[in-house]
Q: What sequence folds into this?
């Protein structure tokens, strides 16, 4: 088995390389993705190996990048678009939610738009304004878009290829502060379904559900709680739209308590929908209300204050204490 330890950034690079090798219709587009290899070097070396017609440096125009990708998808290509930072996606928001998300339904199923929009998102890297946001709920709310986020190198490798192979548009949120976290990647494995949640750690007393950058934080919280005799299950959701509610329900029916964790603000975040749906599904199983841990309902702060803004081990464990106190 081709099992190699690599950072998430390298896993994404290898996954994109594999997709370019496998399908000549796959293209990569974005600001500085070619000669520079992307600001996080996710596309490093790809233009050199596959040429400027396959890995395309674009103008600084996100709406134009996504609009062009839509046109190319209509012509049979499978564009992979990079939005350089999370906060830069909003000039392209109209193209994504008005055109990309709606075209399949507008054409009564006759038109497919296999476009992947890569968005490095979240905080924790000390970046400047508009570089640390978590806008996933804005896209998960839009029918016609699929939204996913890997938490580790193996998922990054396989989920990227699955997203590219998907005939529907996929918004692929990459947790930028986890780019350098290493993990085992089996490049010959048979991956599970793209939108299926997985149990990252078994537990019996409470379920922590998270995705992307917060999965590692939840695993750390579970390890800390174990020292106090508490058994926490960590569920890696992997997908924000669709959400694997069956997996969450199965875990909650076992543990009877749920805390949902994400970096994005708690107010109207993806955790809100999960809390509401699980309360409906598991009302007679729950021994405590579903609690949510996330960012504050405020603009993302300057870098020196982001540690106060972002959910951390203590805030997750505080929610665990509150849930177990019922």
A:
């Amino acid at each position: 088995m081709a099992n190699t330890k690599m950072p998430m950034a390298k896993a994404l690079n290898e996954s994109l390389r594999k997709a370019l090798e496998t399908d000549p219709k796959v293209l990569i587009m974005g600001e500085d993705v070619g000669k520079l290899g992307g600001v996080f070097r996710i596309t490093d070396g790809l233009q050199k190996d596959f040429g400027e017609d396959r890995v395309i440096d674009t103008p600084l125009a996100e709406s134009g990048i996504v609009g062009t990708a839509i046109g190319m998808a209509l012509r049979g290509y499978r564009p992979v678009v990079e939005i350089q930072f999370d906060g830069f996606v909003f000039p392209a928001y109209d193209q994504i939610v008005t055109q990309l998300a709606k075209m399949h339904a507008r054409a009564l199923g006759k038109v497919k738009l296999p476009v992947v929009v890569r968005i490095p998102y979240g905080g924790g890297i000390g970046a400047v304004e508009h570089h640390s946001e978590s806008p996933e709920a804005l896209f998960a709310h839009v029918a016609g878009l699929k939204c996913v986020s890997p938490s580790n190198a193996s998922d990054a490798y396989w989920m990227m290829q699955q997203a590219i192979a998907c005939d529907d548009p996929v918004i692929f949120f990459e947790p930028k502060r986890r780019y350098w976290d290493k993990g085992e990647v089996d490049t010959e494995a048979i991956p599970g379904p793209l939108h299926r949640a997985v149990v990252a750690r078994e537990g019996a007393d409470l379920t922590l559900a998270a995705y992307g950058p917060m999965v590692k934080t939840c695993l750390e919280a579970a390890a800390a709680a174990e020292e106090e005799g508490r058994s926490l299950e960590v569920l890696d959701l992997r997908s924000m739209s669709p959400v694997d509610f069956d997996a969450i329900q199965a875990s909650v029916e076992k543990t009877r308590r749920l805390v949902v964790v994400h970096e994005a603000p708690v107010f109207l975040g993806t955790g809100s929908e999960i809390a509401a749906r699980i309360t409906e599904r598991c009302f007679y199983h729950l021994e405590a209300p579903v609690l949510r841990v996330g960012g504050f309902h405020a603009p993302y702060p300057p870098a020196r204050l982001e540690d106060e803004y972002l959910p951390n081990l203590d805030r997750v464990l505080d929610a665990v204490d509150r849930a177990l106190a019922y």
Notes: The longest strand covers residues 258-265.
